[in-house]
Amino acid sequence: MGKSALAINVAINTAQAGAKVGVFSLEMSREQLALRILAADAGIDSHRLRLSLVTEADEQRITDSIGRLSELPMYIDDTPFQGMVEMRSKARRLSLEHGLDLLIVDYLQLIEGRSSRGGGDNRVQEVSEISRSLKGMARDLNVCVLTCSQLSRGVTNRTSHRPMLSDLRDSGSIEQDADVVMFIHREDMYYTEDEWGQHSPGRPYPRNIAEIIVAKHRNGPTDDINLYFRDNLLRFESIQRVEAF
């Protein structure tokens, strides 16, 4: 659906604005993440970049992009299978040594709980504790924490695939603890162009249209925002910018 891509887009834009960004990547390695960031910034197809199928013009764009990205105040930790105690210690050290404005965690369900093999009710309790710990870390360090989360399978089994707060996987505590909850919804992930014509006759096929649903905003209004997702570049862009071209 693009949750990791959106989080990284936020990280890049925030760092480009001069803010200091930390990323805990529990799913992807530092190298995989760097390739995604490079593809988005340089505007080069991520598949070609991964296979080194680049032209001379691409190579110049890559060189320019690496120069820009190397100057960004962004720090990546790709240690897998780590728990909140370790993450909190690392975040505190990063804050003391470099300063920290935004911390991204990708993603919540990969954070180890006290019992890494716990299932069912145990896992729900673990995720609740992790959610509260993330909230506490944000307050203690006075930093914005953006955490990616999986959704439950129920969203794919409904007639309407638009996610709701109740779809947050493993725990209702995520909904309670978060100041803001946003979902990414893409109709083209559920319908082919032919199926869409039968489902919504007369409406244009929403190819690459990502609806950002602000389902909760503790200190402001909720809203829906449409973005264009360039899946080959792993980059989200404003609809107005795409239409201008």
Overall outline: globular
Largest sheet: 4 strands, parallel
Helix segment count? Answer: 9
Total E-strand runs? 8
Number of domains: 1
What is the share of helical residues?
40-55%
- CATH top level class name: Alpha Beta
Q: Which CATH architecture is right? A: 3-Layer(aba) Sandwich
Radius of gyration, in Å, reads 19 Å
Low-confidence stretches: none
- Secondary-structure class: alpha/beta
Q: Strands of the largest sheet, in order across it?
A: 2-1-3-4
* Strand/helix succession: HEHHHEHEHEHEHEEEH
Describe the structure.
This protein is α/β, with parallel strands linked by helices and 245 residues long. The chain has one domain: Rossmann fold, CATH 3.40.50.300. It contains nine helices and eight strands. The strands form two sheets. A four-stranded parallel beta sheet has the order 2-1-3-4, sandwiched between helices. It has a four-stranded antiparallel beta sheet with strand order 5-6-7-8. Strand 7 and strand 8 form a beta hairpin. Helix 1 packs across helix 2 and helix 2 packs across helix 4. It is globular, with a radius of gyration of 19 Å.
Topology at a glance:
Elements: H1 3-16, E1 21-25, H2 30-42, H3 46-50, H4 56-70, E2 74-77, H5 84-98, E3 102-106, H6 121-141, E4 144-147, H7 173-177, E5 180-185, H8 193-199, E6 209-217, E7 223-230, E8 235-238, H9 239-244
Parallel strand pairs: 1-2, 1-3, 3-4
Antiparallel strand pairs: 5-6, 6-7, 7-8
Helix pairs in contact: 1-2, 2-4, 5-6
Short description:
The chain has one domain (3-178): Rossmann fold (3-Layer(aba) Sandwich). 41% of the residues lie in helices and 18% in strands. The chain has nine helices and eight strands.
